[in-house]
Amino acid sequence: MAIPRLRIDQTALLVIDMQERLMPTIDHAARVIHNASIMLRMAAATGMPYLVTEQYPQGLGRTVDEINKAMTDQSRRIEKTRFSACIDLVHEQLMAWRRGTVLICGVEAHVCVTQTTLDLLATGRQPFLVTDAISSSQADQIAPALQRMTNAGAVQTGVLAAMYELLGDATHPAFRTCLDLAKTVAA
Predict the structure, then answer these.
(1) Could you report the per-residue pLDDT of 52-67, keeping only the tens digit for each?
(2) d(CA 16, CA 113)
(3) Residue of 67, 74, 56 lying closest to 18 (CA atoms)
(4) Buried-most residue among 42, 67, 107, 162 (CB within 10 A)?
(5) Helix and strand tally (H, E) in the chain?
(6) Can you tell me the mean pLDDT for 27-48?
(7) End-to-end CA distance of the chain
(8) Residues 102-141 as b or e (16 or more Cβ within 10 Å = b)
(9) Residue 69 catalytic?
(10) Radius of gyration of the CA atoms of the chain, in A
(11) Catalytic residue (one of 105, 112, 132, 178)
């Protein structure tokens, strides 16, 4: 059995629904936003592709400022109404990038993150859950959601573990930038 691993040339980052009207209700919102922004900055430094989704922005607002500022390409934002972020546009982009591994950050753990993860698994992709950049408005829903996704085949990781696994070596050209980012990870 193959052991799931993070490789820059096989991985894309997906940041799910970190929006203005949703984030004030999220458990540890500041930490989750900050850590997801670190993942976006790491993606920019390493050249790893990313997408940011917005669930019904007319009702939930746009992506929060800290995430927006971390995005180097605003065209990577995709609006959706399905709870799962695994919509046609996302699937097509992952296919075009030839990425079978998806790092996931976002909210809500028990709704959009879970449904996205299950759909990614159903398409043969390997989701990695960045647990210190995933949350919910109901704290008691986070652990069961992570357990369900893990039981289905997703792999739990954290910002630091994912970053260092993707770099693989201190000689990576983005190592210094990522080291500076690593020093700012919110616990």
Answers:
(1) 999 999 999 999 999 9
(2) 7
(3) 67
(4) 107
(5) 8, 6
(6) 97
(7) 33
(8) bbbbbbbbbbbbbbbbbbbbeeebbbbbbbbbbbbbeeeb
(9) no
(10) 15
(11) 112
Token representation of residue 53: 């989704």
Cα-Cα-Cα-Cα dihedral sign, residues 97, 39, 106, 151: positive
- Per residue, the 3-state secondary structure of 44-80, as one string, reads HHHCCCEEEEEECHHHHCCECHHHHHHCCCHHHEEEE
The encoded tokens of residue 49 equal: 């592709």
Angle, in degrees to the nearest 10, between helices 114-122 and 142-152:
0
**80 has catalytic annotation:** yes
Question: Are the C-beta atoms of residues 64 and 23 closer than 8 Å to each other?
Answer: yes
Q: What is the DSSP letter of 83?
A: S
Decide if 34 contacts 186 (C-beta within 8 A).
Answer: yes
Active-site residue flag, 86:
no
Single-letter amino acid code for the residue at 37: S
* CA separation for the pair 130, 151 (Å, rounded): 16
Nearest-angstrom CA–CA distance, 163 and 178: 7
Q: What is the rounded CA–CA span in Å between residue 99 and residue 46? A: 15
pLDDT at 64: 97
Q: Name the one residue in this structure whose structure tokens are 């929006």.
A: 19
Q: Does the pLDDT at position 187 exceed 90?
A: no
Q: Which of 47, 26, 17, 68 is nearest to 178 (CA)?
A: 47
Nearest-angstrom CA–CA distance, 10 and 34: 24
Model confidence at 1: pLDDT above 80: no
